[in-house]
TrEMBL record:
GO molecular function ontology, one term from the record: methyltransferase activity
Top-level lineage group: Eukaryota
Protein name: Alkylated DNA repair protein AlkB homologue 8 N-terminal domain-containing protein
Domain Alkylated DNA repair protein AlkB homologue 8 N-terminal stretches: 26-67
Positions with biased composition (Basic and acidic residues): 122-135
Renumbered residue ranges of the record's region Disordered: 108-135
A Pfam family that the UniProt record links to this protein: ALKBH8_N
Length: 135
C-alpha cells in the first residue's frame, strides 16, 4: 500500500526502456530488443537495395540497430542466459553482415569488431585506441 491505496501487482513493467520482470530475469528485455532490431533489419535491407553507399549503411546500423542492442548493456548483460546472448549475437551477425557485404572496409574482421563492441559496451574490454584516447 502506498498512501493507503493498494498497489497493482504486474508480471513486468518498463522503466527507462528496460523491461523488468518480477523474477528479475532479462528474457523479456532481451526479447524486446531482438524484436526491435529485427524490425529495423527490414529498413537496412531496403537501403542496401537502393544501393546507398556503405558509409550510409554503417551509420544506419550504428544509429538504429546497434544503439538498441547496446542500450543499458552494463545492466543486463552479466545476468543474461547463454540462450539470450546467442539470440543477440545472431541479430548482430545478420545485421552487420548486410553492411559488410556491401563494402568490406573494417579495421578488424567483422566478428572481432562486433564482439569487441559488445565487450566494450558491457564494460569488459577496451581496445588500445580507446585507452590511448583517454590519456
Amino acid at each position: 500500500m502506498i498512501n493507503e491505496s493498494p498497489v497493482e501487482r504486474v508480471d513486468s513493467f518498463r522503466y527507462l526502456s528496460v523491461h523488468i520482470t518480477q523474477e528479475l530475469s532479462w528474457f523479456c528485455n532481451i526479447n524486446t530488443m531482438v524484436k526491435k532490431a529485427r524490425q529495423r533489419l527490414y529498413h537496412l535491407r531496403r537501403l542496401r537495395d537502393f544501393r546507398l553507399p556503405s558509409k550510409v549503411l554503417r551509420n544506419f546500423y550504428s544509429c538504429t540497430i546497434e544503439s538498441i542492442l547496446m542500450g543499458n548493456i552494463a545492466t543486463w548483460f552479466g545476468n543474461s542466459t547463454m540462450q539470450d546472448r546467442q539470440a543477440l549475437q545472431r541479430v548482430v551477425n545478420k545485421n552487420f553482415g548486410l553492411v559488410i557485404r556491401v563494402s568490406y572496409c573494417s579495421r578488424a574482421p567483422p566478428e572481432e569488431e562486433v564482439s569487441g563492441s559488445i565487450r566494450r559496451a558491457g564494460g569488459r574490454e577496451n581496445t588500445e585506441s580507446e585507452v590511448g584516447d583517454r590519456q
